[in-house]
Amino acid sequence: MLFLIIKRIFLGLITLFIVSLITFIGTEVLPGDACTTYLEREAYGAALEACYKRLGLDIPAYERYLSWAYNVIQGDFGYSLSGQMPINEVLGPRIKNSMVLASAAIIIGIPLALILGIITALWRDKLPDITISTITIFAMTIPEFISATLLILIVAIWLQWLPGIVIVPTDVTFFELLPNIILPVIAIAMIMTAHMARMVRSSVIQVMATDYVQMAILKGVPYWQMVFKHVLPNALLPAINVVALTIAWLLGGVVVTEVVFNYPGLGRLVIESISNRDLPTVQALAIILASIYVSINLIADLMTLMLNPRLKSLQIRK
Amino acid sequence: MEISKISEEKQKNLLSKVLEVLKTMASRPSGFIGLSILAFHILLAFLSPYLAPYDYKAIDPSLMLQAPSSEYWFGTDSLGRDVFTRTIMGGRTALTITFFGSIIALLWGGLLGIFCGLVGGKIDDVVMRIVDAFLSIPWILAMLLIVSLLGTSTEVLIPALGFFYGKGIVRVARAATHDVIAKDFIVSARARGHSNFSIIWNEIIPNVRDAILVEGAMRWSWMLLGFSSLSFLGFGVSPPTPDWGLMISNARGLMSFAYWSVIAPIVGLSSLIIGINLTADAFAKALGIDRSTKAPV
């Protein structure tokens, strides 16, 4: 058991190491370096040299990678080019804002997805399933920027219930932020819920078809007792991993949603730093987003390990 | 003589199989709707230049933001361009780029996955680690970086999208290969002394083809989503090319008084993506593959 956990953490760290290599090599191999891309046409003479000095681009690449990686491990991402301030200071409030958005969407999305998934599975091919499944297909296929734009058009412009665009400073307090995040949270939660509900549905349907559930039915176990005692524990376990992968995949969609609502989070920082050609910040963002992805997956794997009785006994037998 | 007969029969089988799959797909209402939407969009992409009533790039300040009328069916946008013309032409670039992108993704992802699944061992471990690492970089960050450094031309976008959406196929192809590799016919092909290449070509590909094709169809819809997101963010198609993502992003600032210029491209893009999705789902079901339990990675 412990060995499995350590192995998973180790694999996650290796993945992050490769990500750091990829981003570093990527920004290195692609034409232009941080200074020439940032300064563009003014990239010559004293300005260029000063920039090289400041970023330490005058030393060999592998040494730069080592010192960069060393600093990153200690939590220091260096200086942003456009803001002329430490990347950590830029990132701090952004991470907080994005966390608020993502956790609100997850808190709404996961229970809702469970309920919808179970309903659709138990009433398979009946009216509730057909209605909900059709809605989920629409919700999960339509791009984030379209659902977000439609939400703004309908709720903010036509009905005028909520502000359509977030106009707050980056370091806003939580309660000032609250009314502003309702629409973005709905936009993100909608897609997330749709994806997860679909997986819960098929997982429950698979378990309903197994021998032990059929046996329980034949034994005369009351329907709801069977659902809660036999079906759900077995159906939700494999769903954990898939849900984690989905949340991680939706990171990309969060970026787009933040841009639509002008939300001051990590996603908008991605666009801003890429538009400003601020490669040090882009590298930092790549590492941070990849770590989020890796840790979500790691947590899901660990949860599956903890909750799965079969894996436990497997380890004892070994 | 014998061999040519067999290969002829094989071809006939392939054609009849394709027809049969299409028939099964269309027999469900969702599959039929999906196929019709997709066919409509593909037809529109080919015919729209001839159908368009106006020039898609003709700017006329005196016609700015006109409401839909009998003359301009979907109204005009902030530069006085006809929204109907731009909407029916708005899918061409996206469809072309993502179609070729998906083919690239299928080819490299499928072949690498099969190779890794067959060879196993150290090479497999290393490649899968790298694929995992690429999977953990959000697609949007990677695509934006590539596009902002190399430009938004078609020659950059197709390989970049093809590369980034192929990494998930590697996993699927590898898993499908693992499923067939222990079967008797592979063992006997090995025993007959066939090379790896011959085993891949003659034994594995026919058996994993369905799984990979289904994955590729799914990728197509995600790639379309990704590409339109890029366009929406201003990193995809460059103006004045008509493109739904770009049209939505240009029109949304004015949608409080000119909703038509944002609704038309939204309907266009949503219907195409839903069409591809329904088709891919029906395709998977027709081939007997359940992919609803998979995460969209």
CATH topology of the largest domain in chain A, by name, is MetI-like fold
Query: Could you give the distance between the termini of chain A?
Result: 10 Å
Task: Give the % helix of chain A.
Answer: over 70%
Q: Any idea what the radius of gyration of chain A is?
A: 24 Å
Task: Report low-confidence residues of chain A grouped into runs of 5 or more.
Answer: none
Order of helices and strands of chain B: HHHHHHHHHHH
Mean pLDDT of chain B: 80
What characteristic shape of chain A results from the CA principal axes? globular
Number of domains of chain B: 1
CATH class of chain B: Mainly Alpha
**Roughly what fraction of the amino acids of chain A lie in strands?**
under 5%
Report the biggest beta sheet of chain A as strand number plus sense, adding barrel if it closes: none
Radius of gyration of chain B: 22 Å
For the record, the CATH architecture of the largest domain in chain A stands as: Orthogonal Bundle
User: What is the assigned CATH homologous superfamily of the largest domain in chain A?
Assistant: MetI-like
Number of domains of chain A: 2
Q: Secondary-structure element order of chain A, as H and E?
A: HHHHHHHHHHHHHH
CATH architecture of chain B: Orthogonal Bundle
Low-confidence stretches of chain B: none
**Structure annotation, total helices of chain B:** 11
Q: Judging from the principal axes of the Cα atoms, what is the shape of chain B?
A: elongated
Your description of this structure?
The complex is a heterodimer of chains A (318) and B (297). Chain A is mainly alpha-helical and 318 residues long. Chain A has helices spanning 2-29, 34-39, 45-55, 61-73, 87-122, 127-141, 144-158, 174-208, 211-219, 223-249, 251-261, 266-275, 279-307, 309-317. Chain A folds into two domains: 15-73, no CATH class; 95-317, MetI-like fold, CATH 1.10.3720.10. In chain A, 80% of the residues lie in helices and 0% in strands. In chain A, 37% of the residues are buried. Chain B has 297 residues and is mainly alpha-helical. Chains A and B meet through helix 1, helix 6, helix 7, helix 8 and helix 10 of A and helix 5, helix 6, helix 9, helix 10 and helix 11 of B.
